[in-house]
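A note from the maintainers: we've had questions about how concatenated examples are separated. There is no special marker in the raw files; a new sequence line simply starts the next protein. For clarity in this README we add a label.
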Amino acid sequence: MIVLVTETEFHRAPEVFSSAAAQCLAVPGDEPTLAREVKERGARYVIVGSVKYTGAIYDALSPGGVIARFGVGHDGIDKEKATAAGVLCTNTPGVLDESVAELAMLLILAAARRLPSLDAEMRAGAWNLGPSGLELRGKTLAVIGGGRIGQATARIASRGFGMRTVGFRRIQRADAAGFDSMAPDFASAVSDADFVSLHINAEPANHQFLNRARLNLIPSRAWLINTARGSVVDETALYDALVERRLGGAALDVFDREPYVAADPSRDLRTLPNVILAPHVGSHTREANRGMAERALQNIMHAEAGDFASMDLLNPAVIAGRER
């Protein structure tokens, strides 16, 4: 059984793919090349990263094939086209929660203690204390999105650093899920926040969720932390808020276009001193990489065995006809 793994993802967990029961082959991740490899090798299964796939791959895979996302976010996969082609789509929920939550806390800590600017000044030969940092104990963290990663972030912030955590879900639920309190709306959640951490997915309803109007609701002292998806933030509006000091700063691991390209060349977030940047490394730990590789392969093995109920299936409609 051949499984094609996009090169970036293969090299994140080579020991898993090299020792798998299936023959895992590293291939380029761009859609035209991946689709060609599928056809030439007669492959039914592919493991992919966050690249957007819009057409050719769904035509190349035969019905019953699998696009297994190496990760939890799946906005790069067109589920409607996959379902129409009879292709099953999966992701790897649960295995990267701690890694992403820990990065969110690292960004909060780096912002609170001005770590990037202190490091840059030291490397330039300066010895300058500069403005004082902040202790996290007693500070308020607003967590936007109350899923597993948001809950893990709140747990670390509360138990590890004594922060007050306020959760907000766009779709309300009754339970507080480990938060000190749940806010009824975004405005209430961020009204007294020192840090606002985003943990919402990239579904169409969340496109540019954090727009100019919502940015204006956040206290000017607060820092925005985004380890979710870049598309949930209006980056141009964010730039303006940072320049105009309507927001204390932003620490970003994800961007609307990756590698990052400014939506407006005159509003490049890389030029601002109150911005901390990372190249989408939230799940890039040894533990999470291994877990995602194993889970992606597990989903493929379940598909090969016809055990669809055990899969992390993103488009269950594709098997509806099989079960009748």
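[label: protein 2]
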Amino acid sequence: MDRTTLLHLPKALLHDHLDGGLRVETVLELADEIRYRNLPASEPAALAEWFHQGESGSLAQYLEAFGHVVAVMQTESALERVAYEAGVDLAADGVVYAELRYAPTQHLDRGLSPEAVVAAVEAGLDRARRETGIVTATILCALRHLTDSEEVARLAARFAGDSVAGFDLAGPELGYPPDDHLVACRIARDSGLGLTLHAGEADGPESVWRARARCGAHRIGHGVRVIEDTAIVDGAVVDLGAVARMVRDQRVPLELCPTSNIDTGVAPDLAHHPLGMLYRAGFAVTLNTDDRLMSAVSLTDEFAHAVELHGFDAAALEEVTVRAVEVGFADWPTRRRLIEDVIRPAYREIAAS
């Protein structure tokens, strides 16, 4: 499949950080509006190069770039603009279903309330939905190294069934186990929210086990290091440890973000990312971008990598796309409509051509 075909295929995105996907020009304009003078570059090309964390080599270093984008997302107008542009940009990339996540308490420096942050993001996404037809949902994040996870979970619960569909723990993984936030996870689950926790990105399979077995996560954000609990022979998974078996056999969805994983040191390059091995071993993988700005990536890019480097064909892409929508957190009638009326017909057309 060529790039044009991949671009126009309907796609579903479960793991995309709102503050990791800004347009470079928007960062510069928002910084100018609030007189933020700490950006590391003032020209779009130079700033894009600085933001690209392709050689960061670790999650901790990768996360450092977020300070600047969060700094310019401290007003209602900025949050609405960023959310709107995210929806428009994703729709232009062929994404028909997108869940965008963000940490609302990171946007209070200029006096906004958490509720105002949620309302501003929803206003921007609503505008993008009306313009493009993209279906979106939001996930509120708490950060593992902070102590406000219960507050964020209660905020998410207040908007459950309205503008918020899920709760997540993000931020640095090493040294901050998810079960430090068991109460927040319970609040989210009890309110009917979807629960997806970052795990198995910077830390190993035990982090995935904690997220699933201790916290009750419905999905795993990344989860790529579950491959460390398998035996591999000649590039194929031939045996599973207890955690890997649980993840595969219980059909725990993995929100894989290959390019981001390479940037943070999971594998030396995309050809050696375990995406293909996990897929062929029967894990419930999905394809995601994580941070479009910091990793200079689109979901079409990730589809192309899966095809060119991991042997995915149209049937495999359809499988991971349908799976992503099936395990999404938005209302089921909307997601079922996308599967039956948009995604499957498009892939049938590819198969017939």
